[in-house]
Amino acid sequence: MAPILNAQGIGLSFPGAPHPVLQGFDLVVEPGEFVAIVGSSGVGKSTLLRVVAGLVAPDTGTVTVTTSEAPDRRRRAIVFQDGRLMPWRDLRANIGYGLEGLKVSAATRRARVDDVLELTGLSHLADRYPHQLSGGQIQRGGIARALAVQPDLLLMDEPFSAVDALTRESLQDEVLRLWQASGKAVLFVTHDIAEAAFLADRVIVLAGSPAGIVLDEHIALARPRDRADPALDAIGKRIGAAL
Amino acid sequence: MGLAGLVLFIGLWKSAQAFGWMRPGTVPDPFRLPAAFLDEWRTDRLLPAIGSSMIHYVWGLGLGSLAGVLVGFLSATSRTFDDLHGWVARILRPIPPLAWVIFAIAWFKVSHAGAAFVISIGVFWVNYFATASAVRNLDPRLGELARAFGHGSFLRRHWTVTLPGAAPGIFSGLRTGVGQAWMTLIAAELLGVPGMGQEMNAAAGVGAYDAVVVYMLAISLVYSLSDWVFGLVEGRILKWRPS
Question: Which of A25, A104, A129, B210 has the greatest count of CB atoms below 10 A from its CB?
């Protein structure tokens, strides 16, 4: 089976910066794989995610996202660090944003929004505006909005860094549940080593300038995983050492 | 308390008139106002004057607002347009709207269109700056959101994100314009177009200062009404804002 994401020879410089952010960077993600990208802040992991998302055009290299063509879906969808719901739309309209412009009937659109509302446990909040939601609910809304377009590749940019520890754990469990239920590939950027080890099939550690892969660790631990598992701890230490 | 303040104000006013603090005959008796009002009403001057003023007001405000929002929006979203019009705006901006009265007469004769033209100039600048700065200060992350969810084209992006995002700023410009239009209206009508400004001028000419005050109060009332109506509309459209 072809990889779902094949990024080859990615190079990117920001004007005025002494070093390129990325240079000759390769990344392959298989269908259904959960890949975490870890690195200290400023290393370029969010930039890498934006290149993969098609939001930033690289100076060199190619990004290929192989999915089945369908006019009623988007190949990839992104969950932002800040949730980024539009304050002037209620939750339902925010979640339906990505469906506008796709070839779906109004009835189907509504049904799909209802589905992801249900899936993310937000059904009872559908008519609320973002300022009436908690940080965790906003973040869930961002995830629901991404799921609504039924992407094959879900990109997540430090989605839980701004929520409290308790909410973070429950959101992590939820993402795993959604991932296992949907079979989508996930590319998850975080600076939290324990989070990466707990969630991912594969942890990629970025370091240096330009950023390179200093560790590509496959985590074969069975799921569901236990946060207190000493094996996770050991993996975390290896990742930490690489950083 | 507010009522007490009003009574005190009228008391001061009455004393000013009774004790002759100003040049005799120039301070109207507040208690004579109802009679003066009835007089203006019965002689069929008040309502036609208000009606005529409303024509100038609605057209001047409408066209000035539309043009101001449009040009302000373009200047903030199109680099080419911004560069192109920058110097023209800098040169025209400091010219007071009333300086255009001369050209209003030259181009439109003494007509409704002339008065509306002068009013629209003041309203234009208010809306031009309010809209341009509201759009410029919009969170750029919203533009990224639009592109990430398939609304990256110029029209889609501005329709789904820029316009609603800048709406509070645009509305505050529109509302300032609602007031600004009244300020220029009276002066614009002094050029001889029928309306409240002209009636005031005529009344002042024969020393009927009480009639002048009747028109001043009429302006105050109509302005308060239009501001109230605008507030209702604004509240409806921006109902998503936290209260």
Answer: A25
Q: What is the DSSP string of B80-97?
A: HHHHHHHHHHHHHTTS-G
Q: For B14-57, what is each residue's pLDDT tens digit?
A: 888 888 888 877 888 888 888 888 888 888 888 899 999 999 99
Distance CA A174, CA A178 (A): 6
Domain presence at residue B25: no
CATH topology of domain A70-151: Rossmann fold (3.40.50)
- DSSP single-letter state for residue A124: G
Q: Which of A84, A88, A98 lies at the smallest CB-CB distance from B240?
A: A88
Total Cβ atoms within 10 A of residue A18 = 6
User: May I ask the CATH class of domain A1-67+152-161+175-243?
Assistant: alpha beta
Name the residue of chain A whose CA is nearest to B167's CA. Answer: A88
Q: To the nearest whole number, what is the mean pLDDT of chain A?
A: 92
Instruction: Report ipTM for this prediction.
Output: 0.91
Query: A188: distance to nearest CA of chain B, Å?
Result: 16
Interface test with B, best of A97, A133, A153, A156 (most B CBs within 10 A): A97
Residue B90 belongs to a domain: yes
pTM value? 0.84
Give the residue range(s) of CATH 3.40.50.300 domains in chain A: 1-67+152-161+175-243, 70-151
